[in-house]
């Protein structure tokens, strides 16, 4: 099938051959005009419609003429619905074309509801048909009704779903949401324009001069602008909920960083309330002092006025976000009027009094004189910068109420960046204007004028007729350097500047009073700090954090009453800067991780710029106050350690996870370039556990020598009908890997579905692992029931050992006396748990039913019982459990469970007996050595047993001791066994013969024809010729068991060389008999055979 992109294809009205899957662009109401314009306009590519060519009247055109219709279509987010009376397959009416697809299909079209989170409050999450449902054959008894098929075809859900179950009631319906102006722009401008604008900016210009003053403002703006860009990028990379800076950082860097910074950020906002309120109270007290109206004294008056102010602000906040927003708008208007009042005052001609205080309107000489710095003693560029920088903060005021914004992804970038731009322009304009109008020092004495004949010292004031030369030798009360009320003096109406100061302090306090509880509530909702979950509850349609408001109020009141904010202020500034640094680092980290999920809609950012912003923020922290920066880092570090230790059960898809993946991938690729070396050998095991929880002993002993040193993959083979196996396998993958993590077992889980067990294991042996991290050792359990198992099972079991050797993979077989497989015990426990859950669910349903009204309650009971799958099978299960309980198997099951955990327990003082009978490259020796390094096995000593000649025992003992010392392996004793090859005693041999008797063919006792027939019918049996040929080897296995019983019966663990059966020579039954007699009546045994490549070396 080819596609032609020329316009003729898309505008051709009627092809010669009708085709349902034809894409036409036809607007029924403008067909003629569309055809006429086709020669001039480029082709418009439309949404594909699957329609019958004979009926092409109804089309959706996205041409410019119908753009409004298209926009409405997008805004509604709904596809066209078919008429209920219309048959789904009826393709001969116009209604048919209102469907996305004109035929029944389980496939759903793309829809936002499929991508929502489960707890989304913006809409109900819907589940699209699974791949299994659309891929498998449709069941014959499933009737697809026209209505349901149409709903599925249009992406409305699965057939038969009740709409009522999919629609969630929004608990916060009718909540007040703010746009980008009122929600972000207003708040950020109010927070950035603080008291600094009115009472300290003039002093900064006086100290640093206009040139360096502008540089200080621009440097501060650069830090906040970079942070604003990073904030915008993170905020537009997905749906943003409430929590502001905490939410952005935690969802980007994970709960460890988010949880640590979220707590100190919320605390900083709470204390900031006290700082701003005290600033307001100090201004009020100064006014009272001027009119001699002090109530008690200055300190207590500040406390009284501050407390009253906080109570009023709390009332506004608790009244609701709508009232708080109105108050913010009023305060902004007052603030803007105050700023405009200042600029108007600069052009009003100055009078004698103002001139004596240093104000001469705009003068080039004053501008030139004030352009350079004139730092007083103890001041410098960085000290002045440290004083100004807090005035540039406040850019997160809008982001902090992200949960109350109508469209956070649009509002946060637009409002934040515009607020930074406007406030920066205002700061620059005020700094330049005040530097061009007011001299640095003035006496305030109207008589200090220049008299004719006096020498002028060349200052700007001198040139303008005033002599302020005595300010060089003594402190003067006026001028940029000395008077903090310069803006009031310059302004057209001084009380408006005071109102501006009130507005700046109160608005910042109000913003912080709202931000702290909102951020704290989001932190508590995530339950990172378990003890703080009490504050997660919200009230009202806006989910107001009333408990958080009360806590913030208490903290603010405490610091107002302490009234020692000069010490706490630098720490709070550093808390905010730490938040900025982490936001910048979050943006850099997310970009650096190169995750496909990092797709910010706001593209005006750069990862390296964000990194430089993070570094700048950290540097500014030390510039402002080094000890406060150290305290901030220490607090954040301890909180980070705490959250990391607690490991909150959350998964937010952070960039930390993405970078971990990238690092692991890079390291794995880099590892492929490194050649294997014997010094770096480590056991990398594929463990045939089945479900990891079903054979805990096998997993525990393997984990003991692979933990923190080698790869461990728990493998399971699903045998049976492919359809059922694949479904069961897919459903259990995540659950079993989670079990490994929960039990702190450092292993992976892998599973395959196969026609037989051996095929599955063969696939795992070949395909498991990645690059150099591939298994080199297979660990399996001993098949204790081999004598009762069908011959095919034995063939598969022995076959996987042969397969492992074929792939040059070592083999370890684990045998313990009992408790190896506890799958039946787990099944009984699972059934009991299900019954208990169903009982509790039924009780809860009945309890809920009792609270409902009349017949509605009865109907609800049946509905809920149906959802809980409470069926008639429950009594049957109960009967089964009672039968099991009546057999008194509880004690037996308990013993099995205890035996299965024997390798989890600390092994007491004892020995690990290593029977290194055959040189397999050293794996038989390396495994027990690694075990002795583990905490649970460190008290066990190694005893080495090797075969030798009876007349050279001492020489061979010395040689083995020398070899072990070169390998640097500590041992307690070495035993040379010289009598391995003698015949076993008669009782032992008789036991072996009786064990294999049911599996012997005895062909020598039968005629040739009968013998050949028996060989064909039972090829798996042991022939007389085979038994005779390998009689010496059989003797050896029986004799070895006698020696093991004699020397190692009391050992904690026996590690023994695994005998190898030559393929197509030794039958599977005989090999299993060897393994059985070799390990019979012994402590836990590991039968080990390496791949005959060196895993030990004595070279450095």
Automatic annotation (TrEMBL):
GO MF term list: sodium:potassium:chloride symporter activity
Chain ranges of the Amino acid permease N-terminal domain: 90-157
Subcellular location: Cell membrane
Residue span of region Disordered: 147-171
Keyword Iron found: no
UniProt keyword annotations, A-Z: Cell membrane, Chloride, Coiled coil, Glycoprotein, Ion transport, Membrane, Phosphoprotein, Potassium, Potassium transport, Sodium, Sodium transport, Symport, Transmembrane, Transmembrane helix, Transport
GO terms for cellular component: apical plasma membrane
Domain Amino acid permease/ SLC12A positions: 183-686
Transmembrane stretches, start-end: 192-219, 261-281, 302-321, 327-348, 380-398, 418-439, 490-511, 549-568, 575-593, 613-643
One GO-annotated biological process of the protein: cell volume homeostasis
NCBIfam families in the record: 2a30 (TIGR00930)
Family recorded in the similarity comment: Belongs to the SLC12A transporter family.
Protein name (Swiss-Prot/TrEMBL): Solute carrier family 12 member 1 isoform X2
Organism expressing this protein natively: Phascolarctos cinereus (Koala)
Lineage: Eukaryota, Metazoa, Chordata, Craniata, Vertebrata
Gene name per UniProt: SLC12A1
């Amino acid at each position: 099938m080819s596609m032609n992109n020329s316009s003729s294809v898309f505008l051709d009205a009627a092809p010669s051959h009708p085709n349902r899957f034809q894409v036409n662009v036809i607007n029924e109401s403008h067909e003629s005009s569309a055809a006429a314009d086709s020669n001039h306009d480029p082709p418009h590519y439309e949404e594909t419609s699957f329609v019958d060519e004979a009926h092409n009247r109804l089309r959706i055109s996205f041409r410019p003429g119908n753009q409004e219709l298209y926009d409405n279509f997008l805004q509604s987010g709904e596809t066209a619905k078919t008429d209920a009376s219309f048959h789904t397959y009826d393709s001969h009416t116009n209604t048919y074309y209102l469907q996305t697809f004109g035929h029944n299909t389980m496939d759903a079209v793309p829809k936002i509801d499929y991508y929502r989170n489960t707890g989304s409050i913006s809409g109900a999450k819907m589940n699209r048909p699974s791949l299994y449902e659309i891929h498998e054959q449709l069941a014959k008894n499933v009737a697809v009704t026209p209505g349901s098929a149409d709903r599925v075809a249009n992406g409305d859900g699965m057939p038969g779903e009740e709409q009522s179950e999919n629609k969630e009631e929004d608990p916060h319906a009718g909540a007040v949401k703010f746009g980008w102006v009122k929600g972000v722009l207003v708040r950020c401008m109010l927070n950035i324009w603080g008291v600094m604008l009115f009472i300290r900016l003039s002093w900064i210009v006086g100290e640093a001069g206009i040139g360096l003053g502008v540089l200080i403002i621009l440097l501060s703006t650069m830090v906040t602008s970079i942070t604003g860009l990073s904030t915008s990028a993170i905020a537009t990379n997905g749906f943003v909920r409430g929590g502001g800076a905490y939410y952005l950082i935690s969802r980007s860097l994970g709960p460890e960083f988010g949880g640590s910074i979220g707590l100190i950020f919320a605390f900083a906002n709470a204390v900031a309330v006290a700082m701003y309120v005290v600033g307001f109270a100090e201004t009020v007290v100064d006014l009272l002092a001027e009119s001699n109206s002090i109530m008690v004294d200055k300190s207590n008056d500040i406390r009284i006025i501050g407390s009253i102010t906080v109570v009023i602000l709390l009332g506004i906040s608790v009244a609701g976000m709508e009232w708080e927003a109105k108050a913010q708008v009023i305060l902004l208007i007052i603030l803007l009027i105050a700023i405009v009042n200042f600029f108007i005052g600069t052009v009003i001609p100055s009078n004698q009094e103002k001139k004596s205080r240093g104000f001469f309107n705009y003068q080039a000489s004053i501008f030139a004189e004030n352009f350079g710095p004139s730092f007083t003693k103890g001041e410098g560029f960085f000290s002045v910068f440290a004083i100004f920088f807090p005035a540039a903060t406040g850019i997160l005021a809008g982001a902090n109420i992200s949960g109350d914004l109508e469209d956070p992804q649009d509002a946060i970038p637009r409002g934040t960046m515009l607020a930074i731009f406007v406030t920066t322009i205002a700061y620059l304009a005020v700094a330049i204007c005040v530097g061009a109008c007011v001299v640095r020092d003035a006496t305030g004495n109207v008589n200090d004028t220049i008299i004719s004949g006096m020498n002028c010292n060349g200052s700007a004031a001198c040139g303008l007729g005033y002599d302020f030369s005595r300010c060089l030798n003594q402190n003067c009360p006026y001028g940029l350097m000395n008077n903090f009320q310069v803006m009031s003096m310059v302004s057209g109406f001084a009380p408006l500047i005071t109102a501006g100061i009130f507005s700046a302090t109160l608005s910042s306090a109000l913003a912080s009073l709202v931000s702290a509880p909102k951020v704290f509530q989001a932190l508590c909702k995530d339950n990172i700090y378990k003890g703080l979950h009490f504050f997660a509850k919200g009230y009202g349609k806006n989910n107001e954090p009333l408990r958080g408001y009360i806590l913030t109020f208490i903290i603010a009141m405490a610091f107002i009453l302490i009234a020692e904010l000069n010490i706490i202020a630098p720490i709070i500034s550093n808390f905010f800067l730490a938040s900025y640094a982490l936001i910048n680092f979050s943006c850099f980290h997310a970009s650096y991780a190169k995750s496909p999920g990092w797709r910010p809609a706001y593209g005006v950012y750069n990862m390296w710029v964000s990194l430089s912003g993070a570094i700048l923020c950290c540097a500014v922290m030390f510039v402002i106050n080094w000890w406060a920066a150290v305290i901030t880092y220490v607090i954040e570090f301890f909180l980070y350690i705490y959250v990391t230790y607690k490991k909150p059960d959350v998964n937010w898809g952070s960039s930390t996870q993405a970078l971990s993946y990238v690092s692991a991938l890079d390291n794995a690729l880099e590892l492929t370039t490194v050649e294997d070396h014997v010094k770096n050998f480590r056991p990398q095991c594929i463990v045939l556990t089945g479900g990891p929880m079903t054979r805990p002993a096998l997993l525990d002993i393997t984990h003991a020598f692979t933990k923190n040193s080698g790869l461990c993959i728990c493998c399971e083979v699903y045998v049976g009908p492919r359809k059922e196996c694949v479904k069961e396998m897919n459903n259990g993958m995540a659950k079993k890997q989670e079990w490994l993590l929960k039990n702190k077992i450092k292993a992976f889980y892998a599973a395959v579905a196969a026609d037989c067990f051996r095929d599955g294991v063969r696939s795992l042996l070949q395909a498991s692992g990645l690059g150099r991290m591939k298994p080199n050792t297979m660990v399996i359990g001993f098949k204790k029931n081999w004598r009762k198992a069908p011959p095919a099972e034995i063939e598969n079991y022995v076959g996987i050992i042969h397969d492992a050797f074929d792939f040059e993979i070592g083999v370890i077989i684990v045998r313990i006396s009992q408790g190896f497989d506890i799958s039946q015990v787990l099944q009984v426990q699972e059934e009991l748990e299900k019954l208990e859950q169903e009982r509790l669910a039924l009780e809860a349903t009945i309890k809920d039913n009792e609270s409902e009204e009349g017949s509605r309650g009865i109907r609800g009971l049946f509905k809920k019982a149906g959802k809980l799958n409470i069926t008639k099978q429950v009594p049957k299960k109960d009967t089964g459990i009672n039968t099991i309980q009546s057999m008194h198997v509880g004690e037996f099951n308990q013993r099995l469970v205890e035996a299965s955990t024997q390798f989890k327990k600390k092994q007491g003082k004892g020995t690990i007996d290593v029977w290194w009978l055959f040189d397999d490259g050293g794996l038989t020796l390396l495994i027990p050595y690694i075990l002795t390094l583990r905490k649970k096995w460190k008290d066990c000593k190694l005893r080495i047993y090797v075969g030798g000649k009876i007349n050279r025992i001492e020489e061979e003992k010395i040689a083995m001791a020398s070899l072990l010392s070169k390998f640097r392996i500590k041992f307690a004793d070495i035993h040379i066994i010289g009598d391995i090859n003698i015949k076993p005693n008669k009782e032992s041999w008789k036991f072996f013969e009786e064990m294999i008797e049911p599996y012997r063919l005895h062909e020598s006792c039968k005629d040739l024809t009968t013998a050949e027939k028996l060989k064909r019918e039972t090829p798996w049996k042991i022939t007389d010729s085979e038994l005779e040929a390998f009689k010496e080897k059989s003797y050896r296995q029986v004799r070895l068991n006698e020696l093991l019983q004699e020397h190692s019966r009391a050992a904690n663990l026996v590690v023994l060389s695994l005998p190898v059966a030559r393929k197509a020579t030794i039958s599977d039954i005989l090999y299993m008999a060897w393994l059985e007699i070799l390990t019979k009546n012994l402590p836990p045994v590991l039968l080990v055979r390496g791949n005959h490549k060196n895993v030990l070396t004595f070279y450095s």
